[in-house]
Amino acid sequence: MKFVFLNCASANEKWAEQAEEVYVKKISAFVPFEIKKLKISKTSRDDKDFKIKTDSEAILKELKSEDYVVLFDERGKSFSSREFSQKVQNILNTGKKRTVFIIGGAFGVDEAVKKRADLQLSLSKMVFNHLIAQTVCLEQIYRAFMILKNIPYHND
User: H or E stretch including 130?
Assistant: First the structure.
């Protein structure tokens, strides 16, 4: 199975690029893994509905019908790291060829993306910018594999 991480971020900072490189390398030790940054339209904050629509269309174009889709959304379910690791194991057990993790645009995603998601997860009740959210997601994916492989890393 391959893991793909889709991100609609428009910002880019050196620290985030460094974190991304570190976690891509770490996660790739367990499963083929790539991050795909979607080219999204830059619109004014006043055009929220258009941004949600165009970002969601870009996301849906990347998905295959047979993908297992995990959407990170502030309204999704909350899991502990151990519970998330069990979800990752369940995903691996599906026999699907690809799992796609998604962070939507600045205003979120439309109902079509939410309906397409097999799992909607919340990182927190708080909202994070894309760079921080991506780093947290990557760390939790890595942590899930460390827990599953029983490698000392996670402390309860």
Answer: helix 130-148
99 — phi, psi (to 5°)?
Answer: -115, 130
Q: CATH fold of 2-148, please?
A: Alpha/beta knot (3.40.1280)
pLDDT at 80 exceeding the cut of 80: yes
CB 138 within 8 A of CB 23: yes
Residue matched to tokens 């939507």: 104
pLDDT digits (tens, 9 = 90+) for 15-56: 999 999 999 999 999 999 999 988 777 666 678 898 899 999
**The token pair that represents 131 in the structure block:** 């760079």
Boundaries of every domain in the chain = 2-148
Rounded to an integer, what distance in angstroms lies between the CA atom of residue 148 and that of residue 144? 6
82 with 154: CB under 8 angstroms?
yes
pTM over 0.85: yes
